Amino acid sequence: MTSKAVTAHPAAASAAPGADRSVLSGARRIVVKVGSSSLTSIKGGISEEALTELADALARKRNAGTEIILVSSGAIAAGLAPLGLAKRPRDLATQQAAASVGQGLLMARYTHAFGAHGVTVSQVLLTADDFMRRRQHANALRALDRLLNLGVVPVVNENDTVATHEIRFGDNDRLAALVAHLVRADALVLLSDVDSLYDGPPAHGAKRIAHITGPQDLEGVTIGRTGKAGTGTGGMVTKVEAATIAADSGIPALVTSTGNAAAALAGQDVGTWFSVNGSRKPVRLLWLAHLASVEGTLVLDDGAVMAVRDRHTSLLPAGISAVRGHFEAGDAVEMVAPDGTVIARGLVNYAAGELPQMLGRSTQELGKELGRGYDRVVVHVDDLVLV
User: What is the pLDDT of residues 370-381, one digit of tens each?
Assistant: First the structure.
């Protein structure tokens, strides 16, 4: 990890009542995410010792009564050695091939390690598409709930074998944040090969940041993007992003090392704790805010900016001054102020080619002139999220 030295804000030094890591000791349901660099290496494939140690900690927590969902990277990394690959491939097709080989190897190890404690595991592969469509995320929730009710530890991973560049999460940290929100988890634990977030380079005597209460506590902190093994896709920066997503949506999160897993689950003072900084939101809005592929831009006039941003209303054609990009109805678009500042994202109800004739006009006027269907809002408030 690399970082610029900053001074942690005083608020980061102590947790608010009821918002500290002791929540983990009595949590009903926890989502735990572990990264590739913690489980595998290019030379050795899957590390039996690291995987077994993690499984031991999670199985003990599960047998003590806490429901556990494990979001595990490592499929692509596990497939490198069997395929004779020296490093993580850059092209999607080879990544998919490595994932196809590695996912079975990874699950076999988990099945054995958890089985030693009498705990059954299952494989759940998801894509970003499963969070953007209501029926699919309802099916995912139903399946995960049933597995947990049966005492199973679901092992979740991105379905790398079929995912395309356009619909990929990019890293499993954000996937874990969305899964935690989907299953209404009490907490999210993000594990890597770094034990905490620091206020500067640890090698230079930096201090650990024990508690993050909001964005102000992260100002000036710069962190690296890959683990020590070189097999991951995110690094500490994506852990922080995922923890922030969770905290902003009503779920506290802890970022620490895989070696601290048992201590973390016991609520001990390890890692960096992100206390809740917002309320729970529909999972579709989290997807829209953090994962959706933006296909175009709608430029709003000052009145529409105030309506959307300040009064949180739907976007009407009368408030749009320009349209950019090529998109179809149902695609995600950004809404920007006249100066280009992005204020919101939303799912648009019209294709890019339909909108120019509608700009600056009322829905009533458009309905009379163009017919039924053109009297709808451009972006409904239920499909809109401020950014």
Answer: 777 777 889 999
Tell me the three state secondary structure of residue 81: coil
Q: How far apart are CA 205 and CA 49, in angstroms?
A: 30
CB 118 within 8 Å of CB 151: no
| pLDDT for the residue 231 | 45
Report, as an integer, the average pLDDT of 316-339: 93
SS3 58: helix
15-24, 64-73, 162-171, 352-361: segment of lowest average pLDDT: 162-171
H helices of the chain, in order, are: 36-39, 48-63, 75-80, 92-115, 129-132, 134-149, 172-182, 236-248, 261-265, 283-290, 302-305, 363-370
Q: Which residue has the tokens 């002139």?
A: 369
The values of phi and psi at residue 33, to 5°, are -115, 135
Handedness of CA 254, 259, 262, 268 (dihedral sign): negative
Under DSSP, is residue 322 helix (H, G, I), strand (E, B) or coil?
Answer: strand
Look at residue 244 and give its three-state secondary structure.
helix
- φ/ψ region of 60 (left if φ > 0, alpha if ψ in -120 to 50, else beta) reads alpha
Is-above-0.85 flag for pTM?
no
Please list, residue by residue across 290-307, b when 16 or more beta carbons sit within 10 angstroms of its beta carbon and e when fewer do: bbbeebbbbbbbeebbeb
d(CA 175, CA 287): 10
| DSSP annotation string for 170-228 | SSHHHHHHHHHHHTT-SEEEEEESS-SEESS-GGGTPPEE-EE-SGGGGTT----SS-T
- Strand, helix or coil for residue 336: strand
d(CA 321, CA 317): 9
| Out of 25-29, 53-57, 85-89, 351-355, least confident range | 85-89
* Interval 101-118 mean pLDDT: 95
Q: What are the beta bridge partners of residue 386? A: 344
pLDDT at 132: 66
What's the pLDDT score for residue 119?
Answer: 98
The structure tokens listed for 40 are 């595998």
Residue 262's pLDDT is 96
**CA–CA distance, 237 with 2 (Å, rounded to integer):** 10
CA–CA distance, 62 with 381 (Å, rounded to integer): 40
